[in-house]
């Protein structure tokens, strides 16, 4: 069983001495006077026993156990002990020819260092520790390392590698049984049938539902969004979003979901139900959250892609407009000098312009005039070209997903609700009184112009586009969130509640060195401010009389008259330099 976790050479390495670095050499192989007294030759020990005992004494805290071949200890460590004890290094090769000597010495070392052998009570504690860790991590090599660290922290001598791996395997098996017991109440006959149905090839989609759920979208097209919406509808039909798996640690849920997505349907089907159903259950629950986040992310990407395309078209249109306006710009360059020449009488300006420029050019320039651009240079108008494309998936997104708004997003959320109703009823006209105060200033002109022209279609297009863009921006900023989502969750859910903070406030404030009382904290800030103001007054009061007052200019700049070096203490000069960096100072003549 052990060789399934570690190769033979790795097992041998775990049983022996590893390489030692300089930090470990100094930390573990430095003998204190008490250690030397413990190894003292007055106890009747030979040089080989003394240096062998020293190696065991230093090795136990380092590795948590002592290898059988004590003589194979790292030469650098043996040399350090040899120098300290004044015993030749070669003496160590004669140590331990009698196994009982090594065993007796190890017993003495554990007693001296206050370590314990792994007896029944220590092994029981180890099994409990391994079970708790196995509920979080299933990697046997990781569990083995964690077990070694636990034993070392408890000052318990590590048992043999195979024995420890057997306990790791037992903990993993127990974790599997414990997992089933914790989710057993969810596994109704109906749900178990639905879980097993995930492993059957569905003729409609041409693959198993498990593989279908585990395959993400490959793009941000309208079809990709609708494909993920179909998955979300399937999962909600199974009530996957309502599964409560909090009885399992988060790491256990993540591990089981990874196993379910990594294994084939055939491999899962061959597993017994007590192992298969918890895996499929976690896949189902995690897919509900993952697909929800995927839908929202694709909605963001698809809307943003069309907005970016509209911005590119707008820039191209601006470039064409600028090129077409070169003739009018040249005409303006000829007109302005005449208008600015005060030597030309006002009644002569028109005649001179018509004679010098010519009526043909003036009429051509007037005929080629173009309408003024809106504030956004036509960006939203360009996005309106993608309105039909966006309508392919945005109504489905709004119908399927519940959006919530935080403080300040009330009008946007009201607009989203109205847009859902319009989509559901097929109405085209935005109702009177529909909120529009969430619309950025650069786009308000579109709505005002459409309303003034009583163009219901244009108003609906521009209003709906601003709602979608506002929703996207709200999701990015956190002003809008989605219940049950992980990536787009309510920002407040990441904070302590009042009850949680009450229990942890004292410890946190002690940790950062701040008073737990708000009144005490404010008083401390006031005292710091008063002290800083006193220091500033000393600087300001040290100036020469008649040089001018320290004051604020009309532009809010702090004006400090210049002082000679002998009039300013060193600390005051330093403070003035700091003020010069922090505040905008007016130039001083």
Largest sheet features: 2 strands, antiparallel
Summed up, the helix count is 27
State the end-to-end distance.
87 Å
Class computed from helices, strands and strand pairing: mainly alpha
Strand fraction = under 5%
List the topology elements.
Layout: H1 8-15, H2 22-28, H3 33-38, H4 47-63, H5 75-85, H6 99-113, H7 120-134, H8 140-153, H9 161-183, H10 189-197, E1 201-202, E2 207-208, H11 209-214, H12 222-237, H13 250-262, H14 265-270, H15 273-324, H16 326-340, H17 346-357, H18 359-367, H19 379-383, H20 387-390, H21 394-400, E3 404-405, H22 410-425, H23 441-452, H24 456-477, E4 480-481, H25 498-512, H26 518-541, E5 551-552, E6 558-559, H27 570-582
Antiparallel strand pairs: 1-2, 3-4, 5-6
Characterise the protein shown here.
Helices cover 63% and strands 2% of the residues. It is mainly alpha-helical. The chain has a two-stranded antiparallel ribbon with strand order 1-2. The chain has a two-stranded antiparallel sheet with strand order 3-4. Strand 1 (201-202) and strand 2 form a beta hairpin. Mean pLDDT is 86; it is low at 585-589.
